[in-house]
Amino acid sequence: MALLDLRNLRTTFRTEDGPVTAVNGLSFSIDAGETLGIVGESGSGKSVTSLSIMRLLARNAAVTADGIFFNGSDLLKKSEAEMRKIRGHQIAMIFQDPMTSLNPVVTIGEQIAEAVRLHLGLNRREAQDKAVEMLEKVRIPSPRNRLGDYPHQFSGGMRQRVMIAMALSCSPQLLIADEPTTALDVTIQAQILELMNEMQQETGAAIILITHDLGVVAEVCKNVLVMYGGNMVEYGSAQQIFSDPKMPYTQGLLASLPRLDDSRHRRLEPIQGQPPNLLRLPPGCAFAPRCTHRMPICAEPVPLYDFGAGHVTRCWLYDDRSKEQRAVEVAPAPIAQDGTTA
Question: What is the pTM of this model?
Protein backbone atom coordinates (compact mmCIF):
# COMPACT_ATOMS: atom_id res chain seq x y z
CA MET A 1 0.00 0.00 0.00
CA ALA A 2 1.28 3.43 -0.97
CA LEU A 3 2.06 5.91 1.79
CA LEU A 4 0.10 8.63 -0.03
CA ASP A 5 -2.51 7.86 -2.66
CA LEU A 6 -4.13 10.89 -4.30
CA ARG A 7 -7.20 10.08 -6.41
CA ASN A 8 -8.85 12.52 -8.81
CA LEU A 9 -8.08 15.71 -6.85
CA ARG A 10 -9.92 18.81 -7.98
CA THR A 11 -9.32 22.19 -6.28
CA THR A 12 -11.41 25.19 -7.32
CA PHE A 13 -11.27 28.77 -6.02
CA ARG A 14 -14.28 31.07 -6.00
CA THR A 15 -13.30 34.51 -7.35
CA GLU A 16 -15.13 37.66 -8.44
CA ASP A 17 -14.43 36.71 -12.06
CA GLY A 18 -15.74 33.19 -11.67
CA PRO A 19 -14.47 29.77 -10.52
CA VAL A 20 -10.78 29.03 -11.05
CA THR A 21 -9.88 25.34 -11.21
CA ALA A 22 -6.24 25.23 -10.12
CA VAL A 23 -6.02 21.42 -9.93
CA ASN A 24 -8.19 19.38 -12.26
CA GLY A 25 -8.48 15.62 -11.71
CA LEU A 26 -4.94 14.89 -10.47
CA SER A 27 -4.00 11.38 -9.34
CA PHE A 28 -0.67 9.96 -8.14
CA SER A 29 0.83 7.88 -5.34
CA ILE A 30 4.12 7.81 -3.47
CA ASP A 31 5.74 5.06 -1.38
CA ALA A 32 7.78 5.37 1.80
CA GLY A 33 11.41 6.31 1.11
CA GLU A 34 10.60 7.55 -2.41
CA THR A 35 11.23 11.04 -3.81
CA LEU A 36 8.66 12.35 -6.29
CA GLY A 37 9.38 15.51 -8.26
CA ILE A 38 6.45 17.68 -9.38
CA VAL A 39 7.44 20.12 -12.12
CA GLY A 40 5.78 22.69 -14.34
CA GLU A 41 5.57 26.41 -14.97
CA SER A 42 4.20 28.87 -12.43
CA GLY A 43 0.44 28.49 -12.20
CA SER A 44 0.40 24.83 -13.19
CA GLY A 45 -1.05 23.77 -9.83
CA LYS A 46 2.03 22.40 -8.05
CA SER A 47 1.77 24.37 -4.80
CA VAL A 48 -2.03 24.17 -4.70
CA THR A 49 -1.70 20.38 -4.85
CA SER A 50 0.52 20.35 -1.77
CA LEU A 51 -1.73 22.75 0.15
CA SER A 52 -4.74 20.63 -0.79
CA ILE A 53 -3.05 17.57 0.72
CA MET A 54 -2.27 19.53 3.90
CA ARG A 55 -5.72 21.17 3.89
CA LEU A 56 -4.20 24.61 4.29
CA LEU A 57 -6.14 26.46 1.60
CA ALA A 58 -8.10 29.71 1.92
CA ARG A 59 -11.82 29.69 2.66
CA ASN A 60 -12.73 30.39 -0.97
CA ALA A 61 -11.24 27.03 -2.00
CA ALA A 62 -13.28 23.89 -2.58
CA VAL A 63 -11.46 20.54 -2.59
CA THR A 64 -13.03 17.36 -3.92
CA ALA A 65 -11.43 13.98 -4.60
CA ASP A 66 -12.15 10.30 -4.68
CA GLY A 67 -9.75 10.24 -1.76
CA ILE A 68 -6.49 11.62 -0.35
CA PHE A 69 -5.35 8.48 1.38
CA PHE A 70 -2.45 8.73 3.82
CA ASN A 71 -1.52 5.43 5.47
CA GLY A 72 -4.84 4.13 4.18
CA SER A 73 -6.91 6.85 5.86
CA ASP A 74 -8.70 9.58 3.86
CA LEU A 75 -7.45 13.02 4.90
CA LEU A 76 -10.58 14.66 3.49
CA LYS A 77 -12.64 12.89 6.15
CA LYS A 78 -10.46 14.09 9.02
CA SER A 79 -11.67 16.83 11.35
CA GLU A 80 -9.59 19.98 11.69
CA ALA A 81 -8.44 18.82 15.14
CA GLU A 82 -7.26 15.52 13.63
CA MET A 83 -5.45 17.36 10.83
CA ARG A 84 -3.59 19.54 13.34
CA LYS A 85 -2.19 16.38 14.90
CA ILE A 86 -1.05 15.14 11.47
CA ARG A 87 0.46 18.41 10.18
CA GLY A 88 4.01 18.88 11.36
CA HIS A 89 4.09 15.38 12.83
CA GLN A 90 3.24 12.74 10.23
CA ILE A 91 3.22 15.13 7.27
CA ALA A 92 5.55 18.14 7.31
CA MET A 93 6.08 20.90 4.77
CA ILE A 94 8.98 23.17 3.85
CA PHE A 95 7.39 26.29 2.43
CA GLN A 96 8.73 28.27 -0.50
CA ASP A 97 9.90 31.40 1.34
CA PRO A 98 11.32 30.80 4.82
CA MET A 99 11.32 34.51 5.66
CA THR A 100 7.52 34.64 5.38
CA SER A 101 7.02 31.20 6.95
CA LEU A 102 9.07 31.83 10.08
CA ASN A 103 7.58 34.08 12.77
CA PRO A 104 9.78 37.21 12.81
CA VAL A 105 9.11 38.00 16.49
CA VAL A 106 9.70 34.50 17.92
CA THR A 107 13.16 33.04 18.38
CA ILE A 108 14.30 30.16 16.21
CA GLY A 109 14.71 27.90 19.23
CA GLU A 110 11.16 28.52 20.43
CA GLN A 111 9.69 27.90 16.98
CA ILE A 112 11.33 24.47 16.76
CA ALA A 113 10.61 23.63 20.41
CA GLU A 114 6.93 24.51 20.04
CA ALA A 115 6.41 21.79 17.44
CA VAL A 116 8.08 19.03 19.44
CA ARG A 117 6.28 20.03 22.65
CA LEU A 118 2.95 19.87 20.82
CA HIS A 119 3.46 16.62 18.92
CA LEU A 120 5.95 14.67 21.03
CA GLY A 121 4.82 15.78 24.49
CA LEU A 122 8.29 16.92 25.59
CA ASN A 123 8.76 19.35 28.48
CA ARG A 124 10.42 22.74 27.94
CA ARG A 125 13.97 21.54 28.67
CA GLU A 126 13.63 18.41 26.53
CA ALA A 127 12.17 20.45 23.70
CA GLN A 128 15.07 22.91 23.88
CA ASP A 129 17.57 20.04 23.75
CA LYS A 130 15.70 18.63 20.74
CA ALA A 131 15.90 22.03 19.03
CA VAL A 132 19.67 22.08 19.58
CA GLU A 133 19.93 18.54 18.19
CA MET A 134 17.99 19.46 15.06
CA LEU A 135 19.98 22.65 14.42
CA GLU A 136 23.15 20.61 14.78
CA LYS A 137 21.84 18.05 12.28
CA VAL A 138 21.23 20.77 9.69
CA ARG A 139 24.75 22.10 10.35
CA ILE A 140 23.96 25.41 12.00
CA PRO A 141 27.23 26.46 13.72
CA SER A 142 27.07 26.82 17.53
CA PRO A 143 23.44 25.65 17.62
CA ARG A 144 22.84 26.25 21.35
CA ASN A 145 24.07 29.82 21.01
CA ARG A 146 21.68 30.44 18.08
CA LEU A 147 18.51 29.32 19.88
CA GLY A 148 17.78 32.87 21.02
CA ASP A 149 18.30 34.42 17.58
CA TYR A 150 15.49 35.67 15.35
CA PRO A 151 14.92 34.78 11.66
CA HIS A 152 16.36 38.08 10.38
CA GLN A 153 19.68 37.21 12.02
CA PHE A 154 20.10 34.21 9.69
CA SER A 155 21.09 34.20 6.02
CA GLY A 156 18.73 32.83 3.38
CA GLY A 157 20.45 29.46 3.30
CA MET A 158 20.51 29.26 7.09
CA ARG A 159 16.79 30.08 7.29
CA GLN A 160 16.08 27.26 4.86
CA ARG A 161 18.10 24.93 7.10
CA VAL A 162 16.00 26.06 10.05
CA MET A 163 12.83 25.25 8.07
CA ILE A 164 14.20 21.76 7.38
CA ALA A 165 15.06 21.35 11.07
CA MET A 166 11.50 22.31 12.03
CA ALA A 167 9.96 20.04 9.40
CA LEU A 168 12.03 17.02 10.44
CA SER A 169 11.95 17.57 14.20
CA CYS A 170 9.05 15.12 14.66
CA SER A 171 10.34 12.55 12.14
CA PRO A 172 7.48 12.86 9.60
CA GLN A 173 6.61 10.02 7.27
CA LEU A 174 6.01 12.45 4.39
CA LEU A 175 7.93 15.66 3.70
CA ILE A 176 6.56 18.14 1.14
CA ALA A 177 9.25 20.57 -0.03
CA ASP A 178 7.86 23.49 -2.05
CA GLU A 179 10.69 25.12 -4.02
CA PRO A 180 13.20 24.54 -1.17
CA THR A 181 16.18 25.87 -3.18
CA THR A 182 14.59 28.91 -4.83
CA ALA A 183 16.69 32.12 -4.63
CA LEU A 184 19.65 30.24 -3.15
CA ASP A 185 23.03 30.16 -4.87
CA VAL A 186 24.17 26.92 -6.47
CA THR A 187 26.49 25.92 -3.63
CA ILE A 188 23.80 26.38 -0.99
CA GLN A 189 21.30 24.55 -3.21
CA ALA A 190 23.58 21.52 -3.32
CA GLN A 191 24.00 21.58 0.46
CA ILE A 192 20.24 21.78 1.05
CA LEU A 193 19.57 18.86 -1.33
CA GLU A 194 22.33 16.80 0.27
CA LEU A 195 20.87 17.54 3.69
CA MET A 196 17.38 16.45 2.63
CA ASN A 197 18.80 13.25 1.15
CA GLU A 198 20.70 12.46 4.35
CA MET A 199 17.59 13.01 6.44
CA GLN A 200 15.58 10.77 4.11
CA GLN A 201 18.15 7.99 4.38
CA GLU A 202 18.08 8.32 8.17
CA THR A 203 14.28 8.41 8.65
CA GLY A 204 12.92 6.62 5.57
CA ALA A 205 10.54 9.49 4.85
CA ALA A 206 8.92 9.99 1.47
CA ILE A 207 9.56 13.38 -0.16
CA ILE A 208 7.43 15.34 -2.61
CA LEU A 209 9.74 17.91 -4.19
CA ILE A 210 7.92 20.75 -5.94
CA THR A 211 10.20 22.74 -8.21
CA HIS A 212 10.65 24.35 -11.61
CA ASP A 213 14.33 23.35 -11.62
CA LEU A 214 14.65 20.22 -13.76
CA GLY A 215 18.33 19.93 -12.88
CA VAL A 216 17.39 19.42 -9.24
CA VAL A 217 14.77 16.86 -10.23
CA ALA A 218 17.27 14.88 -12.32
CA GLU A 219 19.65 14.76 -9.37
CA VAL A 220 17.39 13.66 -6.53
CA CYS A 221 14.03 12.29 -7.76
CA LYS A 222 13.06 8.70 -8.52
CA ASN A 223 9.82 9.62 -10.30
CA VAL A 224 8.63 12.81 -11.99
CA LEU A 225 5.13 14.24 -12.44
CA VAL A 226 4.77 17.01 -15.04
CA MET A 227 1.83 19.39 -14.51
CA TYR A 228 0.23 21.86 -16.91
CA GLY A 229 -3.00 23.78 -16.53
CA GLY A 230 -3.82 22.01 -13.27
CA ASN A 231 -3.46 18.47 -14.53
CA MET A 232 -0.85 15.78 -14.98
CA VAL A 233 0.39 15.67 -18.58
CA GLU A 234 3.20 13.14 -18.08
CA TYR A 235 4.43 10.81 -15.36
CA GLY A 236 7.32 8.37 -15.23
CA SER A 237 10.70 7.62 -13.74
CA ALA A 238 13.32 10.36 -13.95
CA GLN A 239 15.17 8.28 -16.53
CA GLN A 240 12.04 7.91 -18.70
CA ILE A 241 11.16 11.60 -18.51
CA PHE A 242 14.66 12.87 -19.28
CA SER A 243 15.66 10.32 -21.91
CA ASP A 244 12.35 9.72 -23.69
CA PRO A 245 9.78 12.47 -22.98
CA LYS A 246 6.48 11.88 -24.77
CA MET A 247 4.41 15.01 -24.17
CA PRO A 248 5.36 18.05 -26.33
CA TYR A 249 5.20 20.22 -23.21
CA THR A 250 7.74 18.01 -21.42
CA GLN A 251 9.91 18.06 -24.53
CA GLY A 252 9.68 21.84 -24.55
CA LEU A 253 10.73 22.12 -20.91
CA LEU A 254 13.79 19.96 -21.56
CA ALA A 255 14.68 21.80 -24.80
CA SER A 256 14.72 25.10 -22.91
CA LEU A 257 17.43 23.89 -20.52
CA PRO A 258 21.11 24.71 -21.11
CA ARG A 259 23.31 21.61 -21.36
CA LEU A 260 26.98 21.37 -20.42
CA ASP A 261 27.47 18.39 -22.74
CA ASP A 262 26.09 20.18 -25.82
CA SER A 263 29.03 19.98 -28.23
CA ARG A 264 26.96 21.44 -31.08
CA HIS A 265 26.23 24.66 -29.15
CA ARG A 266 22.56 24.57 -30.00
CA ARG A 267 20.40 27.57 -29.17
CA LEU A 268 17.92 27.20 -26.35
CA GLU A 269 14.35 26.72 -27.57
CA PRO A 270 11.79 28.57 -25.45
CA ILE A 271 8.19 27.41 -25.35
CA GLN A 272 6.22 30.00 -27.29
CA GLY A 273 3.13 31.63 -25.81
CA GLN A 274 1.95 31.91 -22.22
CA PRO A 275 0.51 29.49 -19.67
CA PRO A 276 -3.28 29.19 -19.92
CA ASN A 277 -5.76 31.46 -18.19
CA LEU A 278 -7.38 29.12 -15.65
CA LEU A 279 -10.62 31.09 -15.93
CA ARG A 280 -10.85 30.24 -19.61
CA LEU A 281 -9.10 26.95 -20.20
CA PRO A 282 -9.29 25.77 -23.82
CA PRO A 283 -11.32 22.62 -24.45
CA GLY A 284 -9.40 19.37 -24.55
CA CYS A 285 -5.62 19.74 -24.17
CA ALA A 286 -4.72 22.93 -22.27
CA PHE A 287 -1.31 23.02 -23.99
CA ALA A 288 -2.76 22.91 -27.52
CA PRO A 289 -2.65 26.71 -28.16
CA ARG A 290 1.15 26.64 -27.62
CA CYS A 291 1.87 23.30 -29.28
CA THR A 292 3.42 22.95 -32.73
CA HIS A 293 1.76 19.52 -33.08
CA ARG A 294 -1.79 20.63 -32.38
CA MET A 295 -4.59 19.00 -34.35
CA PRO A 296 -8.38 19.34 -34.45
CA ILE A 297 -8.70 16.32 -32.17
CA CYS A 298 -6.78 18.22 -29.46
CA ALA A 299 -10.02 20.09 -28.67
CA GLU A 300 -11.45 16.84 -27.27
CA PRO A 301 -10.80 15.53 -23.72
CA VAL A 302 -7.42 13.76 -23.70
CA PRO A 303 -7.05 10.25 -22.23
CA LEU A 304 -3.88 8.91 -20.65
CA TYR A 305 -1.63 6.74 -22.82
CA ASP A 306 0.46 4.05 -21.14
CA PHE A 307 3.96 3.29 -22.46
CA GLY A 308 4.70 0.63 -19.86
CA ALA A 309 6.87 0.56 -16.75
CA GLY A 310 4.76 3.31 -15.18
CA HIS A 311 5.33 5.86 -17.96
CA VAL A 312 2.11 7.62 -19.00
CA THR A 313 1.26 10.81 -20.87
CA ARG A 314 -1.81 12.81 -21.83
CA CYS A 315 -1.44 13.59 -25.55
CA TRP A 316 -3.44 12.80 -28.71
CA LEU A 317 -0.21 12.20 -30.68
CA TYR A 318 -0.25 8.61 -29.48
CA ASP A 319 -3.81 7.79 -30.55
CA ASP A 320 -4.54 6.04 -33.85
CA ARG A 321 -7.43 8.42 -34.43
CA SER A 322 -4.98 11.31 -34.91
CA LYS A 323 -2.86 9.67 -37.65
CA GLU A 324 -4.41 11.62 -40.51
CA GLN A 325 -4.08 14.89 -38.61
CA ARG A 326 -0.40 14.59 -37.65
CA ALA A 327 1.22 15.60 -40.90
CA VAL A 328 0.92 19.35 -40.53
CA GLU A 329 2.91 21.23 -37.90
CA VAL A 330 1.70 24.69 -37.04
CA ALA A 331 3.01 27.73 -35.23
CA PRO A 332 1.65 28.30 -31.72
CA ALA A 333 -1.63 30.19 -31.73
CA PRO A 334 -1.34 33.86 -30.76
CA ILE A 335 -2.23 34.45 -27.11
CA ALA A 336 -4.48 37.38 -26.19
CA GLN A 337 -3.77 39.51 -23.11
CA ASP A 338 -6.37 37.61 -21.08
CA GLY A 339 -4.52 34.35 -21.77
CA THR A 340 -7.00 32.98 -24.29
CA THR A 341 -6.20 31.95 -27.84
CA ALA A 342 -6.64 34.93 -30.14
Answer: 0.90
